[in-house]
Amino acid sequence: MGKAYANRKPVEERPEADFYSTPYSLTRELLRVKTLPTVIYEPAAGNGAITHVLEQYGHIVVEDDIRTTGADFLDFQDHVPCIITNPPFSLFTEFVEKAKECSDVFVFIMKTNFLGVQERVEKRTWEHLKELYIFSRQIDYRTPLREDGAMCVGNLITGWGIWDMSWKEDYFQTRVIDVQKYCTLGSYEGYVEVRPYRIIYSDGIVEEKETSKHELYELGKEVQRLIKI
To answer: 99-137 pLDDT, tens per residue?
Structure first.
């Protein structure tokens, strides 16, 4: 993982698959259990999903993204008190190395199977990792953003890894964050699939049309029952 970046590929050659929005509920759950500095840097902000929640909770966020502002985090030279991001998984190790150089605390979304890579042990990726908050459900990060934080279920076991540069112990603390109440959308494919439905709205109106469950959510109408035709 991350070897593609060793050759410093231009942005247009980097995989679009490395961009995924972070469901709002995951950042809200982080802030529920962890107190973070007021000022935060988000170096891979994408469409601003993490920033959106941080600002709701009173944080001041400075954000960049190589695809929007052109700022490449791996070239970052300043020092910041705290970084929070969902890094491109193909560049995870490089992002950790850079964050150690330029921050006091950093918080990354990570896959738990990242722990099973010997190269990261040799590179001391886990040095200063203080806490790992693992989500109780496997999440599909393709889920379109929803203000209610609802998510599709997938096959990635992930969580928030929290590095603290003052942490000198050779172990990290773990806990499980219960996200079951947000995993209400089923599979991603079923949620975004456009197909014929008979829609019974809460106001009694019945309509038949081709749509998706996400399109119905975006319309903002309360659906009482959804029937596949």
So the answer is: 999 999 999 999 999 999 999 999 999 999 999 999 999
Cβ–Cβ contacts within 10 Å for residue 69, how many?
11
Identify which of 128, 140, 75 has the alpha carbon closest to the alpha carbon of residue 104.
128
Confidence of residue 14 (pLDDT cuts 50, 70, 90): very low
Cα 64–117–91 angle (5° rounding)?
20
CA 30 to chain centre: 11
Cβ-based neighbour number of residue 139 at 10 Å: 26
pLDDT one-digit tens code per residue, 72-85:
999 999 999 999 99
Phi, psi dihedral angles at 14 (to 5 degrees) = -85, 150
**Structure pTM?**
0.89
25, containing H or E segment: helix 24-33
Q: Would you identify the CATH topology of the domain 3-182?
A: Rossmann fold (3.40.50)
Domain boundaries, the chain: 3-182, 193-228
How is the beta sheet containing 223-228 ordered, strand by strand? 206-211, 195-201, 223-228
The tokens describing 108, both together, are: 């990354």
Percent above pLDDT 90 for the chain: 83
Instruction: Find tokens 């953003």 and name the residue.
Output: 145
Which backbone phi and psi does 169 adopt, to 5 degrees?
Answer: -75, 160
Q: Which residues are 139's β-sheet partners?
A: 153, 156
